[in-house]
Prior knowledge:
Elements: E1 3-5, E2 8-11, H1 14-39, H2 46-51, H3 57-61, H4 69-89, H5 93-111, E3 112-113, E4 116-117, E5 119-123, H6 127-140, H7 149-154, H8 157-161
Amino acid sequence: MPVFIWGRPVLATRYQAAFVVFFRLVMAWTFLYAASRQVLNPHWDIGEFLNRVRTFHDVYGVFAGAMVVSIIAFLVAWGHLLIGVSLLVGLMVRVSASVGGVLMLLYWAAFMDFPYVGDADNFIVDFHLVYAALLFYLAAVGAGRVVGLDAWVGSHPAMHRNPRLKPLFG
Length: 170
């Protein structure tokens, strides 16, 4: 049975839908694992990471300041958790996957020592860019509507009264 997004079929087969669910769950695990290491670890510090940025140090260095770093650490840790939970249950995947994709692009730029990313084995492309592409794909196909809560919320009668909210739920 095809999966329809905005009135047109996006996923034509059950196999394509299974891959979308698989990739959504893999990315959920990625974010939940990162969140577990950040939220549960009282010694986790994003300031060290932000101070090691090379290519865009002036941009990222602003967020490593004493006044801002605790707020950024809170936002990153709990953002990872919320994105992971959203992808896991399939609720508001279009929003969470888009935010996650932007976050991955920010990490990609932060790890860059142009033209290498992280180390000399990664020339311009590394896993952050692949994760970003996958997350943007999940957002584009409305992955939360495939074995997720977005399908249920999107068909709820309240959505008919508030049609502007419908894009948030795939």
